[in-house]
């Protein structure tokens, strides 16, 4: 009988936009079209949208308008962008995701499931078994709820999860969930991240090692 201890199941939880898919230009374009419909300054609207969820954005830039009307238009523009926009996966994303068992990773996004799947199909990225989207939770990032739900669906504990993020709100969400958090695709480390990599490609080998149980759980060394 094999009495060797069983290693705890490790999981990797990825943000999507800005982490696996370069959608910054698409987001700016969608918000620009939305702002134009209401006669607003696109740059000013986008700066608010970068920091807040859509309903919060509407409350700041268009407080007198029905928020559901604003949201409906935004959804229409985003859906059209998924159908006709140009998307690019970050270097190394496809290889990294294909190298991970589907049951070992998940997507945690502030977007919606159907848009994520559409973008992944168009960029050739594999789709995991677990996607936690905006419709799955009442509280978005920086709340820990989305990441905690992903861990639950993967049947693992938060302390055995690695979060890959590119934004302050995402990093805070992972930290509040009690997970290891690495930031990628930014020139400087996001505050609070245990490690930082300027590109996703640079992080790929360490991410794979974590998932296989051959890397460290946390730490700032690189």
Can you characterise this structure?
The structure is a single chain. The chain has 222 residues and is an alpha/beta fold. It has a 6-stranded parallel beta sheet, sandwiched between helices. Helix 8 links the parallel strand 6 and strand 7. Helix 1 packs across helix 2, helix 1 packs across helix 4 and helix 3 crosses helix 4. The N terminus is likely disordered.
Features:
222 residues; alpha/beta; two-stranded antiparallel ribbon; 9 helices; 8 strands; 13% strand; globular; disordered N terminus
Give the arrangement of secondary structure elements.
Blueprint: E1 11-14, E2 21-22, H1 24-37, H2 42-49, H3 54-61, H4 67-84, E3 88-89, H5 93-99, E4 105-108, H6 113-123, E5 130-132, H7 145-153, E6 161-165, H8 168-176, E7 180-184, E8 195-197, H9 200-212
Parallel strand pairs: 1-4, 1-6, 4-5, 6-7, 7-8
Antiparallel strand pairs: 2-3
Concise synopsis of the structure shown:
With 222 residues, this protein is α/β, with parallel strands linked by helices. The protein has helices spanning 24-37, 42-49, 54-61, 67-84, 93-99, 113-123, 145-153, 168-176, 200-212; strands spanning 11-14, 21-22, 88-89, 105-108, 130-132, 161-165, 180-184, 195-197.
In N-to-C order, the SSE pattern is EEHHHHEHEHEHEHEEH
How many beta strands in the DSSP annotation? 8
Please give the alpha-carbon distance between the first and last residues.
Answer: 38 Å
Number of helical runs?
9
Largest sheet: 6 strands, parallel
Mean pLDDT: 92
Q: What class do helices, strands and sheet pairing give?
A: alpha/beta
Given as residue ranges, the uncertain stretches (5+ residues, pLDDT < 50) are 1-6
Binned strand content: 5-15%
Fraction in helix: 40-55%
Oligomeric state of the chains?
single chain
Write down the Rg: 18 Å
Strand order of the largest sheet: 5-4-1-6-7-8
Global geometry: globular
């Amino acid at each position: 009988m094999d009495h060797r201890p069983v290693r705890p199941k490790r999981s990797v939880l990825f943000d999507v936009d800005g982490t696996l898919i370069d959608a910054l230009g698409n987001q700016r374009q969608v918000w620009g079209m939305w702002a134009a419909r209401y006669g607003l300054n696109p740059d000013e609207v986008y700066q608010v949208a970068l920091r807040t969820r859509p309903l919060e954005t509407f409350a700041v830039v268009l407080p007198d308008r029905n928020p559901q009307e604003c949201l409906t238009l935004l959804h229409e523009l985003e859906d059209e962008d998924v159908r006709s926009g140009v998307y690019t996966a970050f270097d190394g994303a496809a290889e990294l995701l294909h190298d991970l068992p589907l049951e070992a990773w998940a997507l945690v996004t502030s977007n919606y499931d159907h848009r994520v799947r559409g973008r992944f199909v168009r960029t050739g990225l594999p789709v995991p078994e677990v996607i936690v989207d905006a419709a799955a939770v009442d509280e978005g990032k920086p709340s820990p709820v989305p990441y905690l739900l992903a861990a639950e669906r993967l049947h693992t504990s938060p302390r055995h999860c690695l979060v890959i993020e590119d934004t302050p709100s995402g990093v805070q969400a992972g930290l509040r969930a009690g997970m290891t958090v690495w930031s990628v695709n930014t020139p400087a480390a996001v505050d609070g991240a245990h490690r930082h990599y300027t590109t996703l490609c640079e992080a790929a080998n360490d991410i794979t090692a974590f998932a296989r149980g051959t890397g460290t759980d946390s730490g700032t060394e690189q």
